[in-house]
Amino acid sequence: MSFGEERIFAVGEINALVREMLEGEFGFVAIAGEVSNLRIPASGHLYFKLKDASAQIAAVCFRADARRLDFDLEDGAQVVARGNLTLYDAQGSYQLVARTLEPAGRGDLERALRLLIARLKEEGLFDPARKRPLPLYPKRLAVVTSPTGAAIRDILSTVKRRFPCVEVLIVPVQVQGEAAPAQIVAALDAITALGNVDVVILGRGGGSIEDLAAFNDEAVVRAIHRCGAPVISAVGHESDVTVADFVADVRAATPTMAAEIAVPERDEVRARIAGLERAAGLTLTRRVDAARRRADALTRSYALGQVRGRIEHSMQRLDHASHRCARAAAMTLMHGRAQAGALDARLSGLDPREVLRRGYAVVLDAAGTNALSSAGDAIRAGEVQLLFHDGAAQANVTGEARLRAPTLEASS
Amino acid sequence: MSETTLTFEAAMSRLEKIVAELESGKLSLEDSLKKFEEGITLGKTCREFLDRADVRIRTLTVEGGAQVAEGNAETDADGE
Asked: Do A165 and B52 count as a contact with CB atoms less than 8 A apart?
């Protein structure tokens, strides 16, 4: 019985008050339950019920959040949903607006993973000091991955493009599922037993934390640690990190990047060789010139009489040396010409810089694309660029100089 | 000289060492010439190695003991 003023609410009004209580009282909640009555209309929002043995609650996951799910939601799935409780005015029912959904047990998985990482770190398995350097030019590369996945295709096509003079040993394994850890361990141990593998790529495409479980398996982590060859891990995409990544000698974000790390670029290696040959040629030319100047000076010297025989002999040797040098330099030049112009541009970034640093300059045509190797070329060109170790300068060639050959200070 | 038995990596580091020695200026002229010629030979060997065009692909099947199966892998057969 009520004798006082009875308060009568409008429906919308009471709903609004209940909504306020719901939203204020509970805030952000995590609810574990089984998914049922899942509906996904064209809007892309997910509508479902969360239930346990005797109760259920309506839930919605809006499209923007649903897009971030990394597993397939289906009826019967045990999940933990996190979000806010709210009231659905149109029906006067309350529901969970789920912001995130994850398979039940994932929290335990993550906790176990954190413990494993802490324990292995304590043991020194991730110590940067024990990471092995990768070979510059591997002869044999082993790839431990699924024979049918995208990872192996990416790795093979990258190796073919960059450095096809390498042998690839594919070790097919399952990368997910119960058999995966044991297979990966056996593969790595077999590679160690072979003893002739220079570098290993262990990889697979991206996936959920459940898909990547094998790469968080302690036995796999230890097998990577004891592997006879340095291991590059290439698990998933950039955002996926596994324990295998911590213990591997190098972590690559993707299988393609792993292949790029494992082998050099063939054209860069060619440019390096050409640069070394050029440096050798320049040094030798300088050496011979210096020796000739010294011999010339001796020839004119006061003590000529006593040493004439020795000098004539060394002049002869020098002529012989010059001849060999010229021939070898011509060979180097021929190789150089055979390489593309692009290669020459790259070269300027490699060893010749060392030569330039010692006071040499390279004469290029006005466009800076071709080296001019003779005085005649430079005179004909008129406008030239001079390439020093720290940059280029523009210059005009006004004519032929008197001096026939460069004079260099004898440096030794 | 036994360049044929050198690995590519060894040949490259030998070539680098030779150039460093030449640049040190400590070698006699005779030795410089000898090293230079060895360097040119090494460079040629390395270039020839790089010109080999095809990746050799083999498959290692692991079941109990390790076995190496010769030949191209299936992934290579689908015309990449």
From this structure: yes
**Residue numbers in A near B50 (CB within 8 A):** 165, 266, 269-270, 273
CA dist., res. A226 & res. A97, Å (int) = 48
- pTM here? 0.60
Q: Among A178-182, A225-229, A305-309, which stretch is predicted with the lowest mean pLDDT?
A: A305-309
Number of domains comprising chain A: 3
Q: Residues of A with CB below 8 A from B8's CB?
A: 137, 139, 165
Tell me what ipTM this predicted complex has: 0.76
Residue of B8, B16, B32 with shortest CB distance to A276: B16
CA-nearest residue to A193 within chain B is B66
* A243 and A158 both lie in a single domain: yes
Q: Is B4 helix (H, G, I), strand (E, B) or coil?
A: helix
CB contact A283 to B (< 8 Å): yes
What pLDDT does residue A336 have? Answer: 47
Which phi-psi region, left, alpha or beta, contains residue A155 (left: φ > 0; alpha: ψ -120 to 50)?
alpha
Cα separation values, A223 from A163, A178, A186, A307, Å:
28, 17, 8, 71
Min Cα distance A374 → chain B (Å) is: 23
β-sheet bridge partners, residue A140? A167
d(CA A291, CA A138): 41
Mutate to test the interface with A, among B5, B24, B33 (most CBs of A within 10 A): B33
Query: Residue A189 — pLDDT band, cuts 50, 70, 90?
Result: very high
**Does residue B34 surpass a pLDDT of 80?**
yes
What pLDDT, on a 0 to 100 scale, did the predictor assign at position A344?
41
Looking at the structure, tell me whether residues A270 and A257 fall in a common domain: no
What is the radius of gyration, based on Cα positions, of chain B? Answer: 20
The answer to whether residue B66 scores a pLDDT higher than 80 is no
- Domain span holding position A77: 11-104
Share above pLDDT 70 across residues of chain A, in percent, rounded to a whole number: 80
**Token pair in block for residue A35:** 């998914």
Same structural domain, A219 and A272: no
Assess A321–B contact: CB distance below 8 Å, yes or no: yes
Residue that is last in its domain, among A244, A262, A280: A262
> Is position A188 within any domain?
yes
Give the residue from chain A lying closest to B65, CA to CA.
Answer: A190
Residue A114 lies in a domain: no
- Cβ-count burial of A151 within 10 angstroms (0-12 exposed, 13-18 middle, 19+ buried)? buried
Residue of A196, A268, A276 best to disrupt the B interface, most CBs of B under 10 A: A276
State whether A342 and A293 are in the same domain: yes
Using the beta-carbon criterion (under 8 Å), do B22 and A136 form an inter-chain contact? no
pLDDT exceeds cutoff 80 at A354: no
Last residue of some domain: A69, A104, A139?
A104
A170 vs B23: CB contact, 8 Å cut-off? no
